[in-house]
């Protein structure tokens, strides 16, 4: 194949990785690795491994005489940072990771690494995408155990211990390698006081079947504290969505956009219950829906229609991976279309983020268009805040800020019923 000689590439323990045109190839040129992975991929257990989150993989080319194996991995539209999970998502990822190792062990494999940077979510399912981390082994290394404790056990313990420590789980997950939180919680004092019982499990590392069972018991005993319903938990719509029967101007406008345009990836910047995210998914898009409320994101996860992420619009999330390969959220989470409905007035009026910065965030995430709800100062919900009008808070100036990328726009009529005053605008380029 031509791809064998392509550069640049990412190198890991198993070989070379090429990401091109939404396709991911792994090129393996070591005989022992080739034999090992062929045995795994042709085993009767491979579909059980996929069900436990292993990235789906197929053989593209095999040349035994030249020691060449080319694999193609399922393309994942969005790579999430551990800080973009809710605590419940993180717990689910850890549990499924151990279950995957249990299944791998049945065919003589375990994972070499035990950190969260090899995992993302596809819709409601954790996916372990570092196929090259699978090694033939019947024991777990001390490094594996230490890594799992530092990167999974400590944040999960924080989210399960009390409501006061719950929020620190996410803060700890923002640290790429070592920061203050990790240094404090991996100190000898913390080991003796907080994690003595768990750390004794290292004695089972030469009996990984027993070790994995004990880790699962620990995880089941330390599920994150349930999150109560929050401010936006009952907005927008009920539990069941009738996507093709719009009830108001906003729904009719958005439905028309999705009926007349094709998007492969859509990013919803404030999804709430996910009505407009699911509308995009209905018309064939892979959708990333993010919200800053933990309970809202967990409810999206249960519906299994879109990939959910716990992100605050005003706090962009960092890069991850070897040499920070995946980049920050502006490179990992880009979409053809950005949905910014019910958002700009909260960000720019209530939270006082400059309009220009709001527009720049939208622009960095969108490649084909932005679907914006503009809420006027006279709108009944904005009037009650009694806040001054921000500089540049008008449709024409917003259009100028978007114009370097999106020169065309489609604008709805003014919605003015029941004290509302807002327009819906689709910024796009031909």
Keywords:
7-stranded mixed β-sheet, single chain, alpha/beta, 5-stranded antiparallel β-sheet, 16 strands, 17 helices, 430 residues, 3 domains
- Secondary structure: number of strands: 16
Instruction: Tell me the overall shape.
Output: globular
CATH topology of the largest domain: Rossmann fold
Report on the biggest sheet.
7 strands, mixed
InterPro entries: SAM-dependent_MTases_sf
Protein name: Methyltransferase
Please provide a written account of the structure.
The protein is of the alpha/beta class. The protein folds into 3 domains: 2-73; 82-221, no CATH class; 249-428, Rossmann fold, CATH 3.40.50.150. It is 37% helix and 19% strand. The protein has helices at 31-41, 46-51, 87-105, 142-161, 163-173, 180-185, 188-193, 196-199, 208-221, 249-260, 275-282, 294-303, 329-332, 344-350, 355-365, 380-383, 395-402, and strands at 10-11, 16-20, 23-28, 57-63, 68-73, 109-111, 119-122, 125-128, 134-136, 265-268, 286-291, 307-310, 335-340, 366-375, 408-411, 422-428. The strands form 4 sheets. It has a 7-stranded mixed sheet with strand order 12-11-10-13-14-16-15, sandwiched between helices. The mean pLDDT is 92. This is Methyltransferase.
């Amino acid at each position: 194949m031509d791809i064998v000689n392509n550069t640049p590439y990412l190198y890991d323990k198993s070989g070379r990785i090429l990401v091109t045109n939404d396709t991911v190839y792994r090129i393996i040129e070591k005989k022992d690795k080739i034999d090992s992975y062929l045995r795994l991929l042709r085993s009767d257990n491979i579909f059980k491994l996929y069900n436990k989150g292993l990235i789906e993989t197929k053989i593209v080319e095999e040349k035994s005489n030249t020691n060449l194996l080319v694999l193609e991995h399922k393309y994942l539209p969005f790579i999430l940072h551990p800080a973009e999970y809710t605590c419940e998502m993180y717990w689910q990822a850890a549990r499924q990771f151990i279950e995957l190792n249990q299944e791998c062990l049945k065919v003589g494999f375990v994972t070499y690494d035990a950190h969260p940077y090899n995992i993302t979510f596809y819709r409601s399912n954790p996916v372990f995408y570092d196929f090259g981390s699978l090694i033939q082994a019947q024991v777990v290394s001390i490094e594996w155990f230490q890594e799992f404790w530092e990167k999974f056990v400590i944040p999960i313990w924080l989210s399960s211990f009390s409501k006061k420590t719950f929020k620190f789980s996410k803060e700890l997950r923002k640290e790429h390698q070592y920061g203050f939180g990790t240094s404090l919680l991996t100190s000898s004092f913390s080991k003796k006081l907080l994690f003595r019982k768990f750390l004794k499990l290292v004695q089972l590392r030469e009996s990984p079947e027993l070790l994995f069972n004990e880790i699962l018991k620990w995880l089941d005993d330390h599920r994150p504290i349930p999150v109560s319903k929050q401010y936006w938990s009952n907005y927008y719509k009920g539990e069941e969505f009738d996507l093709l029967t719009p009830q108001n101007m906003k729904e009719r406008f958005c439905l028309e956009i999705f009926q007349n345009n094709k998007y492969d990836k859509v990013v919803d910047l404030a999804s709430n219950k996910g009505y407009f995210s699911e509308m995009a998914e209905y018309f064939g898009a892979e959708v990333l829906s993010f919200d800053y409320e933990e309970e809202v994101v967990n409810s999206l996860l249960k519906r299994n229609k879109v990939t959910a992420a716990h992100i605050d619009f005003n706090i962009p999330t960092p890069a991850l991976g070897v040499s920070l390969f995946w980049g920050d959220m502006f490179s990992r989470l880009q979409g053809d279309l950005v949905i910014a409905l019910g958002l700009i007035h909260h960000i720019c009026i209530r939270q006082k983020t400059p309009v220009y910065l709001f527009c720049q965030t939208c622009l960095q995430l969108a490649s084909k268009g932005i679907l914006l709800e503009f809420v006027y100062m006279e709108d009944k919900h904005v009037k009650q805040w009694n806040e001054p009008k921000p500089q540049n808070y008008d449709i024409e100036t917003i259009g100028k800020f978007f114009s370097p990328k999106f020169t065309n726009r489609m604008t709805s009529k003014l919605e003015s019923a029941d004290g509302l005053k807002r327009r819906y605008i689709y910024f796009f380029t031909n």
